[in-house]
Amino acid sequence: MRRVLTAIGALALAACAAPLEEPERFTDPQGCDVDVQARILAPRCASGVCHAGDTAAAGLDLSVDELALHLFDVEASGCEGRMLLDAEAPDESYLLERLGDDPRCDGESVAPMPADGPPLTRAERACVRGWVRATAARLNGSTP
Fold first, then answer.
1. Among residues 82, 131, 125, 85, which one has the least CA distance to residue 106?
2. How far apart are CA 136 and CA 52, in angstroms?
3. Which DSSP string do the residues of the chain spell out, in sequence order?
4. Phi-psi region of 114 (alpha: psi -120 to 50; beta: other; left: phi over 0)
5. How far is CA 140 from the centre of its chain?
6. pTM of the predicted model over 0.85
7. How many whole angstroms separate alpha carbon 114 and alpha carbon 123?
8. Tens digit of each residue's pLDDT (9 = 90 or more) over 93-141
9. Hey, what's the torsion of the CAs at 71, 127, 122, 133, to 10 degrees?
10. Which of 25, 80, 131, 139 is 20 to 30 A off residue 86, Cα-Cα?
């Protein structure tokens, strides 16, 4: 009887203990402790011919010093009326939209970024979103 109960218990645990497919969805984006520009944006978006240097795509150079000063409250060249990073509404920032799964401009579908390489992971996007929110809060004189 003891073996039967042990076997039933093991089966029950196995049925409930599915592997965690997306562990990053349980992480706190505010707790992201990486330098977003150096560890995410530069290697994933500012490498090669994309968003770096004098020939940066859409004039968006993600390799510059003090990146936030170059992105906040600047209109996106590819989507009129949208801010690259919006200090007043950080979650509405066009850069975040373009890094998402189904980016849109004026209701029309646009290509997700990065264009050259795999999309950012959920954890990377959470870090970028956390960086945008925290930076917007600092620019607005509050804490995130």
1. 82
2. 23
3. -HHHHHHHHHHHHHHH----S-GGGGS-GGG--S-HIIIIIHHHHSSTTSSSSTT-GGG--TTSSSHHHHHBT-B-TTSTT-BSB-SSSGGG-HHHHHHSSS-EETTEE---S-SSSPPPPHHHHHHHHHHHHHHHHHHTTS--
4. beta
5. 21
6. no
7. 15
8. 999 999 999 999 999 999 888 887 889 999 999 999 999 999 999 888 8
9. -60
10. 25
Task: Give me the amino acid identity at 118.
Answer: P
Tracing tokens 């944006």 back to the chain, one arrives at 41
**Cα 47 → chain centroid:** 17
